[in-house]
Write a structure and sequence with these properties.
- With 163 residues, this protein is mainly alpha-helical.
- The protein is built from 5 helices and no strands.
- The protein has helices at 4-33, 37-63, 83-110, 114-144, 148-158.
- The longest helix has 31 residues, at 114-144.
- It is elongated, with a radius of gyration of 17 Å.
- Hydroxy diiron-OXO moiety (OFO) is lined by residues 17, 20, 50, 53, 94, 97, 130.
Length: 163
């Protein structure tokens, strides 16, 4: 059984993961409007992945005999000035998510909730990938700068991401 403090924090993180899915879907919609199909595909895959993260929190709360309490989802940003700005936002978003995971991990240690501590270890590893993949694309975009050719090559490459 989880205590109420942990239950509350896990529910907040569930909401953040759903917001992440929503944010990446909004980024996919932006790329569709720019006719960058590969970037849009990459973001759709990412959005689905975030839904699986949310469900991990959902299932963990239930398995620990807690109560899932869904909350309102914030409206995501819908427009960006450039492709690089989208990935800058994505990278910064992931670093914030990492910090939230660390905070909940810290709380679970303090509350001696070892099951939640163990559960969160998966997210500690996952966040390394989440940060590095967005940063890698951001760094490529920095190199590409204003080259349309370079952008289209990267767009083609991102279309191959598997879901
Ligand atoms: Fe769920 O990792 Fe991204 O936000």
């Amino acid at each position: 059984m989880i205590n109420s403090k942990i239950e509350e924090e896990l529910n907040k993180q569930l909401n953040r993961e759903i917001f992440s899915a929503y944010l990446y879907l909004s980024m996919a919609a932006y790329f569709e409007s720019e006719n960058l199909k590969g970037f849009a595909h990459w973001m759709k895959v990412q959005s689905k992945e975030e839904t699986t993260h949310a469900m991990k929190f959902f299932n963990h709360i239930i398995e620990r005999n807690g109560r899932v309490m869904l909350e309102k989802i914030d409206t995501p940003k819908i427009n960006w000035k450039s492709t690089a700005e989208v990935f800058k936002d994505a990278y910064e978003h992931e670093t914030k998510i990492t910090n939230f995971i660390y905070e909940i991990l810290e709380l679970s240690r303090k509350e001696q909730d070892y099951a939640t501590e163990n559960f969160l270890q998966w997210f500690v590893s996952e966040q390394i990938e989440e940060e590095s993949q967005t940063l890698e694309i951001l760094q490529k975009l920095d190199k590409i700068k204003d080259s349309t050719g370079g952008l289209l090559v990267l767009d083609h490459h991102l279309e191959k991401r598997e879901g």
